[in-house]
Each structure stands twice: as structure tokens, then as C-alpha cells.
Inverse folding.
């Protein structure tokens, strides 16, 4: 029997999500408890240890189901993309607020009050979600206020229902963001994180990892050298890597070669990457 993907299904020999009863074996089945991310960003690790590999990240205001809270670590499944892993206990809260706004610029600051001269309390990435309870203006700058009294510049956020229209334009705003394995924020991002975050800002929910994206995103339009003319938004997949076409000849991707988000001519990328990983495995049109 093929077992469910552990990245997307919460089960261990001793403990599992009760929704998996009958599909997996576990000592105990439990229901998840809803929690919300209260840190600016939080790592999701493979094991409950600060030395464990980071598989992905969650952003402020996103939510997760907690199946275990033990010795400072929570075993969770993210509500956004279903990813399973371990998060630090202090990055989560059981007090859940409904998000009204989302950060729409690559990076911004949270202040203790509506004044840009105040010391910063946090740095927030694009995609972070906030519950706004009021507004204020100081010296001509408009701020959004949170229940904590903290404030963010109003022009750096939009209402959650006001989506961006073009994921490629979103990805282009993240050029020169540092490459970070497992990263999913504008402070550090990996190749599939760039694709997922860019589409999320346009209300398109995509899987997290490149193999998941390659398995089921949009329409398969080619493999290897066999593909139609590429166009804006098409995804190109190599083993363990994904890029997004900005036009028919230039692609955007979080590159381990430059350790940053870059524009790169498609033909040059195929030649360069081919020495290590061969031709692209697939092309998909979301």
C-alpha cells in the first residue's frame, strides 16, 4: 500500500491526525487545534530541533492545526498549503484574529504606534496577514492600526479580498531577494516559495514544493526540448527546481547559482543548469 505523503499528512507511529484514521497506523489519533502565527516569520522544521532542516516557512497571521505541543515545539499542519512539520511554540497563539489586510509590498515595518519615528517592533514580509481595527494619520502619513496598538503604513497593505492580478509582476518585485532554502518570504525565498507566494498574492493556491508543483499545476505543455513557444507565466521545471517565464525568452527564479531572485535568459539557464541536472523535465501553464 502506498502511504500518504508525510509532507502533506500528519502521521507518525505514535500520533496522527484523526482525519487519517483507517488510512495509516498510529498509536493515537487526535484532532488538530487551530492556532495562528504571531511571529513575523516562522520556520517549519523536519524535526523538533533548532538544528533540524527547514522545509518551509509561515508568515504572520497565517494559521495551522496543532496536533502536539511538547517541550517548546508544536507539530502542525499548515492550513494554507497543508504542509506538516515542527514549529517553535512561541511562534503560535491560540487567539485567532480574522485577517482584514495583507502586506502587499515586498517588506515593511510594524511600529508600536502610528509614527515612522518610533522604534520598529517587527519587520513584515509580503503576504503577512493583519487584523486592522482602526486608522490614524501622523504628519500626513496614513497608518493602519492593530488591536495591539501597533501600526503599519497603510499604503503597504491592501484588503485581503483585493488580489493582485499578475503573479509574474509580483515575482518581479522580489528580484534581488536573497535565496534561502525553505524560505517563503521577501527576506529570503527559494524557487518554489517564489512561485507559491507570487500566486498566493493573486489568490491562486499552489502547492509548496517543486515536485508538487510539477505534478499538478495547470496544464502540462511540454517536456525536455519538446514544448510550444513559452509565454508569460509558464513554469519550467528541472529536478528540484522551478522557474517562471517573464516573457518568451526571460525567466524569473530564486537561483542557488546567484543566491538571489534573478532574471535570466531562458536559453542561458538551460545550458548552465544542463551541466548539472540535464534538460528541463516539464513545462506547465498555470
Amino acid at each position: 500500500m502506498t502511504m500518504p505523503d508525510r509532507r502533506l499528512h500528519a502521521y507518525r507511529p505514535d500520533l496522527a491526525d484523526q482525519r487519517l484514521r483507517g488510512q495509516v497506523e498510529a498509536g493515537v489519533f487526535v484532532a488538530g487545534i487551530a492556532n495562528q502565527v504571531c511571529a513575523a516569520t516562522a520556520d517549519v522544521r523536519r524535526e523538533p530541533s533548532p538544528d533540524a532542516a527547514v522545509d518551509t516557512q509561515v508568515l504572520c497571521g497565517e494559521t495551522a492545526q496543532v496536533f502536539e505541543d511538547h517541550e517548546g515545539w508544536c507539530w502542525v499542519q499548515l492550513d494554507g498549503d497543508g504542509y506538516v512539520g515542527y514549529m517553535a511554540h512561541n511562534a503560535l497563539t491560540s487567539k485567532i484574529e480574522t485577517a482584514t489586510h495583507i502586506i502587499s509590498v515586498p517588506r515593511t515595518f510594524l511600529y508600536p504606534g502610528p509614527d515612522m519615528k518610533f522604534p520598529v517592533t517587527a519587520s513584515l514580509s509580503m503576504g503577512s496577514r493583519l487584523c486592522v481595527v482602526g486608522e490614524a494619520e501622523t504628519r500626513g502619513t496614513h497608518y493602519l492600526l492593530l488591536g495591539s496598538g501597533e501600526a503599519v503604513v497603510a499604503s503597504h497593505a491592501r484588503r485581503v479580498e483585493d488580489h493582485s492580478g499578475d503573479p509574474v509582476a509580483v515575482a518581479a518585485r522580489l528580484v534581488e531577494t536573497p535565496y534561502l532554502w525553505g524560505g517563503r518570504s521577501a527576506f529570503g525565498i527559494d524557487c518554489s516559495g517564489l512561485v507559491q507566494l507570487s500566486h498566493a498574492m493573486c489568490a491562486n493556491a499552489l502547492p509548496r514544493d517543486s515536485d508538487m508543483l510539477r505534478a499538478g499545476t495547470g496544464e502540462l505543455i511540454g517536456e525536455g526540448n519538446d514544448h510550444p513557444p513559452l509565454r508569460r507565466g509558464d513554469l519550467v521545471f528541472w529536478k528540484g527546481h522551478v522557474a517562471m517565464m517573464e516573457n518568451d525568452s526571460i525567466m524569473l527564479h530564486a537561483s542557488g547559482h546567484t543566491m538571489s531572485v534573478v532574471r535570466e535568459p531562458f536559453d542561458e539557464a538551460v545550458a548552465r543548469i544542463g551541466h548539472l541536472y540535464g534538460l528541463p523535465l516539464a513545462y506547465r501553464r498555470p
Summary: Residues 33 and 66 are 5 Å apart (CA to CA).
